[in-house]
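Support case: user asked for a sample of complex input and structure output to validate their parser. Sending the pair below.
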Amino acid sequence: MPPLRARHGTDGLKNFKNNIISCERKPSPHPSERYDAVPSLTPETPQLIALSAPSIRCGSCVAMIEKTLRELPQIDAVRVNLTNRRIEIRTLRQDSDLDGILSVLARIGHPATLIDAADQQDTGKDAIGSAMLRAIAVAGFGAMNVMLLSVSVWSGADGAMRGLFHVLSAMIAVPIVAYSGRFFLISAWTALRSGRMNMDVPIALALVMALGLSLFETLRNGEDVFFDAALTLTFFLLIGRYLDHRMRCRARNAMAGLSKLSVKTALEVRTGGQVHPVAAADILPDMVLRIPAGERMPVDVRVLRGSTDLDRALVTGESLPISAAPGDEIEAGAMNLTGPIDVLALRHVSDSFVADMTRMLATAEEGRGRYVRIADRVSRIYAPLIHILAASTFLGWVLATGDWQRSAFIAISVLIITCPCALALAVPVAHVVAAGRLMRDGILMKDGSALERLAQIDQVTFDKTGTLTQGMSMPRTNLKMETQTVAALAELAGSSTHPAARAIAESLPPPPENLGNITETPGFGVEGLLPDGRRARLGRASWVREIASEDCSGEGPAFCLEAAPMMRVPLRETLRADAEIAVAALMEAGIPCEILSGDGDGPVTRIATRLGGLNCLYELDPAGKVGRLQALAKAGHRVLMVGDGLNDTPALAAAHVSMSPASATDAGRAAADFVFLRPSLQAVPVALRLARRTARVVRQNFGLAVLYNCVAIPLAIAGYVTPLVAAIAMSSSSILVVANSLRLNSIAKSRDRSRNWRPQNEIPA
Amino acid sequence: MNSLILLIPISLAMGAIGVVVFLWTLRSDQYEDLSGDAERILYAEDRPIVPKDQNTARKHKETAR
């Protein structure tokens, strides 16, 4: 965070009043309450607020936000971070009006959410990244200077001069390798202690051996030292390591910005009817809570008073809202749509539906823990191999010449030249280039192993609601009504926020305002008065039937004018953008697709047919989805799961690899390996293509590294490797591997052009 | 030969200055928002080079950051 500049000290008193007022008129349990939990000093202490605003996209957004916020009286300093899409604000006082700031931001088109104190620690300052950058800088400095001295030696410095250069190199190299190389040394040590083998073991061994041998040679005034090799190794390898780290950090930052769904506070109704905000974690069983329309259930509850409609799409995968009346039990995470209700908390938040999902997720993830990254698999073979090779070189030379010192020198030069510099760069550089490429297409990747796993898949399973489909619409064709009736329907539908009503209103022309006295009965529907005094109703069939002259069976919400026959408005789910193209592209690539849905038979089969007759399983509970994935895994399939709901979360973790849209629940996004930010389902084939291409590049990189070793190892064993040869061979192999990985970028670009890929707008989150 | 006594420390010192400058830029968070800084230059408001009073001087500094 750049240091924020103070704006003015004298504004303090003026704002004191503003803030008092703003505090009094703010009984809402808004995010600001959470911020109060942060240790507060005195009210006069400036407060630092970090907001996440995913809609920040360019320099003009930055300029506008900073200008607008700077004009607010209570704000001391503002700094917008375009990279992380964050706003950092320093206010003059502790108890500033956060709601005010948020509403100002929403008004100028940049809705923001507060970043939680916990998330902030996680994503704020990247301590490891900075430490690595410092280590890279120091290693680069050392490498350059030692190389300078080494070049003088190689070009013929001799005698006392060579000795002086060697001592100088030692003085630079030893502390710097200890400082910058600590990442490898520590990692190798922990791996060895727990009896594992990773790529850092041969690296650390090569570093330590190179330094030890060179120190020894320096002391006895020998000819060849490897200080420059040790330093360039550290420098190159640290760059690979840093890129890998940064890739993961960026994905995590981007994902933190998406967080918006989880309920953190609720309203408690105390005896006497007073309403108090309470944190979700403090809700006890038997507490009475008030859930306003538009909020999600914080825990599992039973309805006490009021009736409403619930959107359970993210909880169970049902596409149509259901109605709830007193006595009904509701799972945590369901959204209250139409009317406020009073509910009785049944369980603690840790025993609620969400927590069940988290537990299932943990068990499902254990299976995936067995996956070994390709680099580790390679190093398991490679590391013992080169150690045996070095040992037998030593033995061979001792037996052949009897010269211990010369044999040790040659054996160690084998270790140095086989140090897996190119191997260690082969994977991370390819993954970083691929991650950057994916990010430009609006796909976030958690880590490199996800890309490896995605390249292996041979089957895709989709969740239906929210993944293959997005909302509902009314097919225009099969409505046979008079214009006046259609206008009444459109007006009734337009007055409600119920998703079904929304869908109807959107597919009809905007009506003239004819109806009077429009009222909404939560859980039942909307009613209005026609100019001739008759009533018109839209909503639940049993309720609409009360005024109908004639009943009508069918699906979808019912609609009727008083004393006229009732009719049903058929609703169809709309497919997510490009769903057909994406599924077709996957099928064409030889990957069968399947639908696993919690929704009923009818809607699932309809969607499956529209997508070209996919295999589908319906009415699955979360355990059923996991069971299906495990059965597929047992049959030897590697499955990509694409889903968004809370009920998909365990399945996302159980699958070989998983993706979820940005609209998914927090838990879903946390469980998924990839998150796509744009509405188009094309993200799935795009990511798959890139993963496969990346896997190919990684294999090529390994091939290059092996080729390099085939040339270098015989030279080293034969004793022809001088420090100069080592420096040239190691740098050129690393550069070759990096260049090959960068090719991934250009391939991807040209293919996209030829496929006429059109970029789409990102979801305004 | 004697020139080396001078030249080697000079080359080392120049390298060291480079490292120190880099570490300073790192510490003062100049790499936190690279894309933002690239855009910012296009949206910086025009201001007189010589500030008129104390107030503008402060604001000037603020935007310059």
